[in-house]
Specification:
This protein has 25 helices and 28 strands. It is an alpha+beta fold.
């Protein structure tokens, strides 16, 4: 893959903004006929954009051109930057128009396309992100890609990063001189992408479905929660860096913490919820959560507000309140629902998708404050000093050294005492001044609103409102949910319960729904309707929920192996058809649908639903075993399945023979442990024997996050982990002559552990990722292995 390597060297990702001014808007291009707000943002670019469709691919094939594919979404900051710098640049647009066919895709309308090419980007070794920039063939196969590119070459840290203009010229040159090699590379990348996407559901592994399998992820995730500020992070780097709320994971941990009466985990989950609510990731004036925090402390967010985040967090805080009736949780739910009602709700029902991060050409400008702005808004120096104490506006500015993101990290009791006020008087004063700041902020230029109404995301919000209505005994929340559900049933649902993905309302209030829906649309909307029925007992909600569920079984299910494809059987055919099982910022479709099927089976007494749920869980049992931290929604489905009392499948007494091609990292590495007692310490020696032709990344691989998972031992359920010492051997360079090559383990290596307490299989996990030596560079999925310890 010489050209693959060469191109990968070209496409370096950077977040350096160019000072190049965008070209003035000219005549509209084809995107002007689209309904997606993101595509419409590019409707006046000089780039001759096509929407995804056969017209663009036919043109590329006829003219022998490669396709430049750009994928993003309306509230994406770096998408805006690239639009201004490159897609509005006449010189770059001329190159694109002359040598490429250009396609623009809204990832929220077409998540199937986004998943394919994001996976391809990760096959290249990139972490990915948006805008996703990919060069593909006229058959849709990926050649090479990246994310945001500056328009021109840039000097960074003594080196040169190629700009988008130069990359286009280089790709076009390769297309003329080495087209055959590029097409061969595309075949190889497509093959690797398909293998990556389908590896987990090619066969049903023989894994026993038990409580240990359902709970394993919580044990491992507990180690990844920041003990000081909460949130899922990386303990190896001191939890530094960005933090996402990850609601599916937190919901799983919340339930496991209280189901198992794990007091430590309860504290960590509650600390996470409290710190998020007090931090800048939460909009302290207007309610609602921003997308993620750029730092460990939840202080400075990436300011876009997404419907899916706020829906899941409303539900999460409502459920957490039932376990732990913290008034802060109630306040968060009330304020966030008020934000959704005020800013994300369409008049006829349904919920809009997102608010942008940018306004006035700057990220976060709508939300940040200077002391002078606060004093002006309140028209009182004393009130300004008071509110600065409330929102921790002291010391150095926390946003770009020029302004503050509001936080409530000090307790109300402490500030009330400091201000010599009773708590009631303090709260009353905060409420009054907060309203004045909110009114002043409302006069600022508002962030862009993405008015797409996505079925899946609306399903999450409907379910969240139902949960909040029950928790806080508030019928207006249930009424909001019912109105949105009626809207989607009227406009995005056919008589035979087929769904549409995206609904828009134009300036004349005409409603249009587009795109065949995906599995998450079916799963999340049907689940929301089911919960609406449980609360209201209205038959129409259950009838619709069951109708949509049956439609999902018919059009998405795979009866032979179990589980559900992300696209329907009559969907546009892409070069891979995948099953969605991993959780990220949203829950996996298969996990949600498995839970719904179990509930539907109990409700209707029809075995077909329980059988389909069982088949889904069995299909992904191997992922639950190998990578339990990545599938918390499926773990909750398994927990529901076991609670329901369904019979666990029989596990063969003898293991089945393995073929010559390993599918799991544990098939490549053998682990043997010996232990000695020396004085007051237990000394463990862990011997790893790695099959010839394979390697593991060393603990200190020295190659960054773009390379595979480093080998690591995790010690669980030990009171003082600081006294447990782990010694890793030094790795050897994967490429001996390359000083920047990753360090790896091969053949036989030994790890050493010194512990003041005796460890057992319950305490020790080994994290590895096995990769094949040679040019192919195939890596198996990372795996967490239980370490068997002798008595």
């Amino acid at each position: 893959m010489n050209y693959f390597v060469r191109l990968l060297g070209l496409l370096v990702i950077t977040n350096t903004v160019s000072s190049m001014e965008p070209a003035k808007k000219g005549p509209p291009n084809r995107l002007a006929k689209e309904s997606s707000p993101y595509l419409l943002q590019h409707a006046y670019n000089p780039v001759d954009w096509y929407p995804w469709g056969p017209e663009a691919f036919a043109k590329a094939k006829k003219e022998g051109k490669l396709i430049f594919l750009s994928i993003g979404y309306s509230s994406c900051h770096w998408c805006h930057v690239m639009e201004k710098e490159s897609f509005s640049n006449k010189v770059i647009a001329d190159i694109l128009n002359k040598h490429f066919v250009c396609i623009k895709v809204d990832r929220e309308e077409r998540p199937d396309i986004d998943e394919l090419y994001m996976t391809a980007l990760q096959v290249f070794g990139s972490r990915g992100g948006w805008p996703l920039s990919m060069f593909i063939t006229d058959s849709g196969k990926p050649i090479v890609g990246g994310t945001y590119f500056p328009p021109e070459d840039k000097k960074v840290d003594g080196g040169t990063i190629r700009g988008f203009k130069g990359i286009l010229e280089e790709i076009q040159k390769l297309n003329i001189e080495k087209r055959k090699e590029l097409l061969e590379q595309a075949d190889e990348v497509a093959k690797l992408t398909v293998e990556t996407l389908t590896n987990a559901h090619r066969a049903n592994p023989l894994v026993e479905l038990n409580r240990e399998l359902a709970a394993e992820g919580a044990l491992l995730l507990q180690e990844a929660i920041d003990p000081e500020f909460g949130g899922i992070g990386n303990p190896n780097n001191g939890f530094r860096g960005t933090k996402f709320p990850m609601p599916p994971t937190l919901r799983y941990l919340l339930r496991e913490a209280y189901r198992t009466k794990n007091a430590d985990l309860q504290k960590l989950v509650n600390k996470t919820l409290t710190k998020m609510a007090q931090g800048g990731i939460y909009d302290q004036l207007g309610g609602g959560f921003h997308r993620y925090s750029t730092d460990r402390t939840w202080t400075v967010p990436h300011f876009e507000k997404m419907l899916y985040d706020n829906a899941q967090l409303i539900e999460l805080y409502s459920e957490a309140y039932e376990y732990n009736p913290n008034q802060l949780y109630k306040q968060v739910v009330q304020e966030t629902i008020a934000f959704v009602a005020r800013e994300l709700t369409a008049p006829p029902g349904g919920f809009y998708s997102a608010l942008d991060a940018d306004s006035e050409g700057e990220e976060g400008e709508f939300y940040i404050w200077t002391p002078a702005q606060i004093e002006t808004a309140l028209n009182s120096k004393d009130d300004a000093l008071f509110i600065r104490a409330v929102y921790s506006i002291t010391g150095n500015a926390n946003f770009e050294n020029r302004a503050y993101v509001l936080q409530t990290i000090r307790s109300a009791d402490d500030i009330a005492k400091e201000q010599k006020l009773t708590l009631d008087a303090y709260q009353s004063k905060v409420t009054d001044l907060k309203a004045k700041l909110f009114a002043a902020r409302a006069k600022r230029e508002r962030p862009f609103l993405d008015t797409k109404i996505l079925t899946a995301w609306n399903g999450m919000m409907i379910r969240a409102l139902v949960q909040a209505g029950v928790t806080f005994k508030e019928p207006t929340y249930t009424a909001m949910a019912a109105k949105a559900a009626d809207f989607l049933l009227q406009h995005a649902t056919t008589k035979d319960f087929r769904l549409k993905r995206s609904t828009s309302i134009d300036s004349e209030q005409k409603v249009t729904s587009r795109f065949n829906a995906y599995l998450d649309d079916y799963a999340l909307f049907a689940d929301a309707l089911f919960e609406l029925h449980q609360v209201t007992n209205e038959a129409k909600w259950l009838e619709a929920s069951e109708g949509i569920t049956k439609s999902a079984l018919k059009w998405f299910g795979e009866e032979q192996r179990g589980g559900f494809y992300y696209t329907s059987s009559d969907h546009e055919e892409l070069f891979a058809r995948t099953k969605d099982y991993s959780d990220g910022v949203t829950p996996s479709s298969n996990g949600v649908l498995a839970q719904l099927l179990l509930k539907m089976g109990r409700q209707t007494k029809q075995k077909q639903y329980t059988t389909a749920a069982e088949g889904t869980i069995k299909q992904f049992a191997g992922v639950l075993k190998i990578r339990p931290t990545g599938v918390p929604t499926l773990a909750l489905a398994l927990d529901d399945y076991l609670t329901q009392g369904a019979a666990a499948p029989e596990v063969p007494k003898q293991p089945l023979p393995k073929n010559n091609s390993p599918t799991k990292s544990s098939e490549v590495v053998a682990v043997v442990v010996t232990v000695k007692k020396i004085a007051d310490s237990f000394q463990y020696r862990i011997k790893l024997t790695i099959q010839p032709g394979w390697y593991l990344y060393a603990n200190d691989s020295g190659a960054g996050e773009a390379i595979g998972k480093p080998t690591a031992v995790r010690v669980l359920a030990v009171d003082d982990k600081s006294k447990v010492q782990i010694k890793y051997p030094a790795g050897k360079p994967l490429k001996p002559l390359d000083p920047k090559a990753a360090l790896v383990y091969q053949e036989i290596v030994e790890l050493e552990i010194s512990s003041p307490v005796k460890l057992s299989e319950a305490n020790l996990r080994l994290e590895v990722q096995a990769c094949q030596s040679g040019d192919a560079g195939v890596c198996l999925l990372p795996e967490t292995i239980r370490i068997s310890v002798p008595d």
